[in-house]
Amino acid sequence: SLSAGLDLPGRFLFAILTLMTLIAILVFIEEAVYIYRKIPSSKRSIIIWINAAAPVISTTSCIGMWVPRSTMFTDFTAGIFFAIVIHKFLMMMIKECGGQKVLLRRFENGRFTISTGPCCCCCLCLPRVPITRKTLFWLKLGTFQFAVLRPVLIFLSIVLWTNGNYVLNNLSPKGPALWISCFIGALTLCALWAVGIMFRKVRILLKCKNIIPKFALYQFIVILNQLQTTIISIFATQKIIPCAPPLSSRARGSYIAQQLLIMEMFLITVISRVVYRRKYHDLEPPECVAEEPGDKKETP
């Protein structure tokens, strides 16, 4: 078994990381009860989903650490949950503005700046798009497609993997791993772009709701769960992370990624409890809110 193959420091590390995962789950359960009691029903489920991101990723990483053969399934589970959370974060920003109708009234003459990351941060020549029901629909579609298509692609990957056709190390054009990974990457960039466009517009209005720390926590989850894991996986595939018998380079890279994620998600869970637990003031009516500098202003 796995525990029999570990030395004393290894067992101690596994025990500490497991304890951190359990504490993260308990902190989230306590926070979910608080949100259920104190937050209006219109925002309740969205905020619970967003707060669940870190403990869910920590739990899947812990399971993958103890049961190495389940790594593919745990990574896919975390990936599906993460895709849903991105859509939920966009919807939370709209809800915090008072809903779609109130948001359209607040920014009646405003425009979205689409030259933002991660897709078009260097394309400053792009026009600013009017804020209308149609543009809001496209932004919501940008995150919704990720929440729908990523689980479909992950399910397809599992089916191909069980049949022996999907091999993560095989990135040749003839294999499905390269094409599925590239397609998921493109969908991810589109979803993150939609969230970035919305955040850039509402960050001043929602400053009283602490939207900047909330967005920072969301960005940390994105970077640590996606970018960090991908970089470690590349290092392991290229043998930059040396093997340590009985672990191969890839298995050792997977262990490193999972252990880092458990510690990082534990910290994010604790910080999220502080950020989302504060009591915030309600926004002023739309007629009293000034537009951002550069937007057209209209006298009420």
Verbal overview:
With 300 residues, the chain is mainly α. It has one domain (2-279). Helix content is 68%, strand content 1%. The protein is built from eight helices and two strands; from the N terminus they run ααααββαααα. The protein has a two-stranded antiparallel ribbon. Helix 3 runs antiparallel to helix 5. It is globular and about 65 Å long. This is OSTA protein. Keywords: Membrane, Transmembrane, Transmembrane helix. It is a multi-pass membrane protein. It is found in: Membrane. The chain crosses the membrane at residues 12-34, 46-67, 73-91, 137-161, 176-195, 215-236, 256-276.
Mean pLDDT: 81
Distance between the termini: 71 Å
Given the C-alpha coordinates, what overall shape results?
Answer: globular
Secondary-structure-based class equals: mainly alpha
How many DSSP helices? Answer: 8
Strand count, sense and barrel status of the largest sheet are:
2 strands, antiparallel
Unreliable runs: 288-300
**Would you list the SSEs in sequence order as H and E?**
HHHHEEHHHH
Q: Order of strands across the widest beta sheet?
A: 1-2
Beta-strand proportion: under 5%
Q: How many β strands by DSSP? A: 2
Rg to the nearest angstrom?
21 Å
Q: How many structural domains are formed by the residues?
A: 1
Helical content band: 55-70%
